[in-house]
Amino acid sequence: MSEALRDYTSLHIGGPAKKFVHAKSEEELIAAVKEADAAGEKLLIIGGGSNVLIGDEGFDGTVVRVETKGNSYHVDACSGGMITVAAGEDWDEFVAWILGKGFVGLETLSGIPGTVGASPIQNIGAYGHEVSEVIARVRTWDRIAGAYKTFSNSECGFEYRSSVFKREKDRYVIIDVTFQLKNGEMSLPIKYEELARALNVKLEERVLVEQVRKAVLSLRALKGMLLDKKDHDTWSAGSFFVNPIVSADVAATLPADAPRWPQSDGRVKTSAAWLMERAGVKKGDCFEGAGVSRKHVLALVNNGSAKASDLIELARSSRKAVKDKFGIVLEPEVQFVGITL
């Protein structure tokens, strides 16, 4: 069955799929993948469609949408909770559910769109914490070996916004994710200044997890990072570019007020949004049907009539402005299908 992919992405952009499969169970998911692979068919696997820009021509192959549901957990007095969640579960619904069960560790990741299965691929993170801190294992289908493979945390190769699943993006299909979370009412240490200010606490302090979730959702809403079908300014794929990590020498060339977050390997992470704004990219800038969000410069949005090519042109001009001004090449966080930057 062919369907318009724009109906399944947060950007509301994307042409038709040659074949579209709704995989509502693990068995349906594996069967669809195996069928496409056996036929030598191109395969695209999507979850919430919140981190992808699909070309206007669509996808000339099989698109499998992961819609699997279910979770199981057990609690140990020493280790806390081990929670295994199906890949197709909505991420923020899972976060809200798990916090309601009295577990700590996912509160700063509230409001991130997408599915549970996508979380380890990007090693999603926000406000000072990453999902890799609480993932125990990831169960996958290895398309090359034609067999199940389970990864422990150390085998996932987690890096900033990356993992082995992203680096070998066409190999592993994520089936479910197991999280190890502690019981408690108090959050992980607050490590992000903006969130600390919103909570009126000092860095490294802990507060009630419900307060952190509320503050994070509020901050994301102010930046247009909470999806709203009625608000075109939220029709985005979240942050279009990742925050660049540069050498200490490059960081030293940046203006004194540039954000700097020292990394363990001696490099320095800086802010993509800050670089874009200082390079002249402005909130509300437009190209045809695409625009820079009026709330956050790092979100490129569909103003209602954008084509994929419009988003790409806007991304290219933003990227060029930063390179010309600072010599830093921004790397996309968004995944491209049938189109390149």
Short description:
By secondary structure, this protein is an alpha+beta fold. The protein has helices at 26-38, 91-100, 119-122, 164-167, 193-199, 209-222, 248-253, 272-278, 308-326, and strands spanning 17-23, 43-46, 52-54, 59-66, 71-76, 80-86, 103-104, 125-126, 129-130, 135-142, 147-152, 172-183, 245-246, 261-262, 268-269, 286-287, 290-292, 300-302, 335-337. The model has no long low-confidence stretch (mean pLDDT 94).
Give your account of this protein's structure.
This protein is α+β, with helices and mostly antiparallel strands and 341 residues long. The protein is built from nine helices and 19 strands. 25% of the residues lie in helices and 25% in strands. The strands form six sheets. Strands 5, 6, 7, 10, 11 and 12 form a six-stranded antiparallel β-sheet that branches. It starts with 16 loop residues before the first strand and ends with a strand. The model has no long low-confidence stretch (mean pLDDT 94).
| Coarse structural class | alpha+beta
Q: What is the mean predicted local confidence, pLDDT?
A: 94
CATH class membership of the largest domain = Alpha Beta
Q: What is the CA-CA span between the terminal residues?
A: 30 Å
Taken as a percent bin, the fraction of beta residues is 15-25%
> What number of domains?
3
Low-pLDDT regions: none
Q: What is the CATH topology classification name of the largest domain?
A: Uridine Diphospho-n-acetylenolpyruvylglucosamine Reductase, domain 3
Sheet bearing the most strands, described? 6 strands, antiparallel
User: How many H/I helices?
Assistant: 9
Number of strands: 19
Shape: globular
Helix/strand order, N-terminal first: EHEEEEEHEHEEEEHEHHEHEEHEEEHE
Helix content: 10-25%
What would you report as the Rg, rounded to the nearest angstrom? 20 Å
Q: What would CATH call the architecture of the largest domain?
A: 2-Layer Sandwich
